[in-house]
What we know:
Layout: E1 4-11, E2 14-15, H1 20-26, E3 50-56, E4 61-65, H2 71-81, E5 87-90, E6 105-108, E7 117-118, E8 128-129, H3 131-144, E9 150-151, H4 155-168, H5 175-184
Parallel strand pairs: 1-5, 2-9, 5-6
Antiparallel strand pairs: 1-3, 3-4, 7-8
Amino acid sequence: xxxxVEFDExxxxxGHKGQPEMVKKSHREGRRRRLKGKRGRGTAxxxxxxxxxxxxxxGQVVLRMLSDVQQKTIQPVIEVNVAKGALIFTDEYxxxxxxxxxGYQHKTVNHSQGEYARDEDGDGFHEVHVNTxxxxxxxxxxxxxxxxxxxxxxxxxxxGFFEFVHNVRQxxxxxxxxxxxxxxxxx
Length: 187
């Protein structure tokens, strides 16, 4: 990815579906209806693994499930997928503070102050935002909803398929040739 890229993270509830022994080992209380989960950021250990997302505006999306969201965790993912010098758009989360040191341009929006998009050059177009990535999170959540719970072990597979379908930009029967090409291509 290059040019303009948006970064964001989301936390998906994913436990040990289909693995009753792992649920017993985690000593987690059963979930009750109408009770919200704990506030704050999740980790893989808390059955709320973070998903780190990157999208090039007008281009490809990359989604990665991480054990946690820290600078040392995201830096290798960023360096493999984003060209140095790219302009990165994020929110104000502190894990993005070193992007300039790592060789990237960086602009932020401050969600906590109600800022979701900003026009910096006065042309009427609000170019500083992470709304593309937020839209992808919305699509991902509605795509996962019918599955009624995801196993943490299988979540990377769901993410990989969602990423593939989004990047191919084909639906229904027209998706099949691209899928077969991917599956039958040599490693």
